[in-house]
Automatic annotation (TrEMBL):
PANTHER family per record: OS06G0138600 PROTEIN (PTHR44067:SF3), S-ADENOSYL-L-METHIONINE-DEPENDENT METHYLTRANSFERASE SUPERFAMILY PROTEIN-RELATED (PTHR44067)
InterPro entries: Prob_Methyltransferase (IPR053223), SAM-dependent_MTases_sf (IPR029063)
Annotated TM spans: 24-44
KW Transmembrane helix (keyword) present: yes
Listed name of the protein: S-adenosyl-L-methionine-dependent methyltransferase
Length: 412
């Protein structure tokens, strides 16, 4: 499978970790509340306090005790906050630590603008951004930022991806030169869309497979095969199952105004290629989980975007005509799904379409949850098909798929 199964897998794993963390957090909180209360109980019920205050146990002794208790509460609260920070991973990169590479320090350093405050934006400093979760992978990050400035970059694209999948997104910039591969034999669009991509113009370094044939054989989707069975080429073009909408039909639902869009987790860019023939420009988000997907998409003359679905989409509000995906973070806590859906809603323009394409629901409950969530947005349901497919791997059980085309309407 393509990039996304990996991404989603990782996402889910992290959500699982988060829930483990939150129960750990609950335990810590419970423990802290109990100890604080027990301490207070002890302080007020221990013999010298339970008896009537004798003349020498005067008010200042009691107030001393009270302030001791308050200090104890204060310190447990601080400890708790620290634990919460660590468990949730909201650390910040402390560049004063000894193991931080110089290049990272230099990159993160804020510098005052040479001409003072910028009158248009009001900013006074040049800042650099890096994912806050990078602090949780400092060892890997240090490895990533350890290179000779101006020299060749280490051959470490898998390290970069590992960091991104751990939430270190965006990565810091580097001052090194990446390996170059001559891109020979690129053809013009639209010819390039379905022409075989030569293995020689892709970088297979760091991957198990060293060519497309191996990759296609290992991944039954044959997603780097643009000629072979032609199956992918017919997707969205020739009628198949009732869950498979045709590109032309969906574009017609949009009343002709569908020109630019975003395919979240679009593997090797087939959707963008089908749409390109219809003069619709699609940006495909993908990582390079086990093959150079981004390069492959680019070689087809399509636009790859190297981000996970976990970060805020790099588009301004209300600009896209279409958002297409078959993968959301299924099985994740509903809040995670909400953050994703709200961001999809944010980037869609009024009248724009959200095309949920053969979305696999792990169970009926997850389908209901998603349905409730989608309905909250008050989109016009232009298409809504729930289909079941026999599960070939697990005997007997059928799988539930949801396909929908939803139109964003004006909210007052
Ligand atoms: C109260 O107790 C403190 C210390 O035990 C002592 O210094 C102080 O003189 C006492 N005051 C009265 C009014 O007894
Ligand atoms: C796409 O645009 C080209 C050039 O403007 C035009 O010739 C062609 O008919 C268009 N294709 C579709 C499907 O609209």
């Amino acid at each position: 499978m393509g990039s996304v199964s990996l991404k989603i897998g990782d996402g889910t794993a992290r959500f699982k970790r988060a829930s483990v963390c939150s129960s750990a957090l609950n335990l810590v909180m419970l423990f802290s509340v109990l100890t604080t209360n027990l301490f207070a109980l002890y302080a007020f019920t221990s013999p010298q306090h339970s008896t009537r205050p004798s003349p020498h146990k005067n008010i200042s002794v009691i107030s001393e005790h009270v302030s001791l208790i308050l200090r104890e509460i204060d310190s447990s609260q601080r400890k708790l906050a620290q634990m919460e920070k660590e468990l949730l991973g909201f650390e910040i990169i402390d560049t004063s630590k000894p193991n931080v590479p110089t290049e990272l320090k230099l990159f993160l350093q804020n510098n005052p603008l040479p001409l003072g405050k910028d009158s248009k934006t009001g900013i006074t400093e040049m800042v650099s951004s890096v994912g806050h979760s990078c602090a949780g992978s400092m060892e890997l990050l240090a490895q990533y930022m350890n290179y000779k400035p101006g020299g060749p970059c280490p051959d470490d694209s898998s390290l970069a991806q590992k960091l991104i999948l751990r939430g270190c997104e965006p990565l810091p910039r580097r001052r090194c030169l990446t390996k170059t591969i001559p891109k020979v034999g690129l053809s013009r669009s639209p010819l390039s869309l379905w022409e075989p991509v030569s293995d020689k113009i892709l970088s297979w370094s760091g991957f198990g497979c060293k060519n497309s044939a191996c990759h296609n054989a290992k991944n039954s989707g044959a997603d780097f095969d643009l000629v072979g069975n032609g199956y992918e080429k017919q997707k969205w073009v020739k009628p198949r199952g009732k869950n498979d909408f045709l590109a032309d039909d969906v574009l017609a639902l949009g009343g002709g105004g569908i020109r630019i869009g975003f395919d979240i987790g679009g593997d090797s860019g087939h959707f963008a290629a089908v749409m390109a023939v219809k003069n619709v420009t699609i940006i495909t988000s993908t990582l390079n989980p086990n093959a150079p997907y981004s390069e492959f998409i680019a070689a087809r003359g399509l636009f790859p975007l190297f981000i996970t679905p976990n970060q805020r989409f790099p588009f301004s509000d209300g600009v896209l005509d279409l958002v297409h995906t078959s993968k959301l973070s299924d099985g994740a806590p509903v809040e995670k799904l909400e953050f994703l859906m709200f961001d999809i809603d944010r980037v869609l323009r009024v009248g724009g379409l959200f095309w949920l394409d053969n979305y696999y629901c792990v169970d009926d409950e997850s389908k209901k949850t998603l349905t409730r969530l989608i309905e909250k947005f008050g989109y016009k349901k232009l298409r809504w098909v729930v289909g079941e497919k026999a599960d070939s791997s697990r005997s007997g059980k059928s799988q539930v798929y949801l396909s929908a085309v939803l139109q964003k309407s004006v909210r007052l």
